[in-house]
Amino acid sequence: MTLQDDETPDRLVGAERVLAVLAELARRPDGIGLEEMARAVASAKPTVHRALASLRRAGFAHQDGYGRYVLGDEFLRLAFAHHERRPDHIRVMPILRALCDRYGETVHYATLDGRWVVYRSKLDPAVGAVRLNSVVGGRNPAHCTAVGKMLLAGLLHDEQAVRDWIGDRPLDRPTERSASDAGELHAALEQVRADGYAVDDQENEPAINCFAVPAYLTSPTVPSGAISISGLVYRMPVRKLADDLPAIRAIVAGATELR
What we know:
Elements: H1 15-26, H2 34-40, H3 45-58, E1 61-63, E2 69-71, H4 73-85, H5 87-103, E3 106-113, E4 116-123, E5 139-141, H6 146-152, H7 159-166, H8 182-195, E6 198-201, E7 208-215, E8 225-232, H9 238-243, H10 245-252
Antiparallel strand pairs: 1-2, 3-4, 3-8, 4-5, 6-7, 7-8
Helix pairs in contact: 1-3, 2-3, 7-8
Protein name: IclR family transcriptional regulator
InterPro entries: GAF-like_dom_sf, HTH_MetabolicPath_Reg, Tscrpt_reg_IclR_C, Tscrpt_reg_IclR_N, WH-like_DNA-bd_sf, WH_DNA-bd_sf
Domain HTH iclR-type: 12-73
């Protein structure tokens, strides 16, 4: 759970505190002790202990043999069941599988959430997968990812719109190739609109290229998200994928059997 700017941890009460504890558990896959949790959510240990007891009763938290707390199996079961039943996840998996089989690279389906893209689905090839920093449910800055630029190109049609979207916060720059200001980002989005696809040329991770196209899973006119193919620069040149754009579009449209 992310607190709003005008909220502080010591103002958490009741259900908010339980949710803050649950969110902290999600950030600690190796577990966390009671004292450390109390510090993390800035609450008294007895109060945090009661919150953890409530989560344990629901199966949302578990205490291991060392006294550390981790997410409970019931929470994980519900989360994964919900994810699996999402219509966009179900509909996109055959598309991701076809792209993964054709190009032998990692493929993603992502949606836009403010300044971020959220990865809804990811599929790695059976062999030769490159370890990327993306995970299902994870986020990356929209302006320096191919999926993000693909979706922003449909929303920010002029430089003023880009400036308004950036606001007073500077753009994150994961690499030296990442866009640094509104002018650069506007030019990149103009290129996306002209090409009909988006590229991340080592803008989010060094040595990694990404190539993205829009996905229309829930509407024929409004993209539900974007699909990307990601791989090492030396073995997945962007030009190769651009030349294969008709095939990629056909797969995303559902035509997975291509001559």
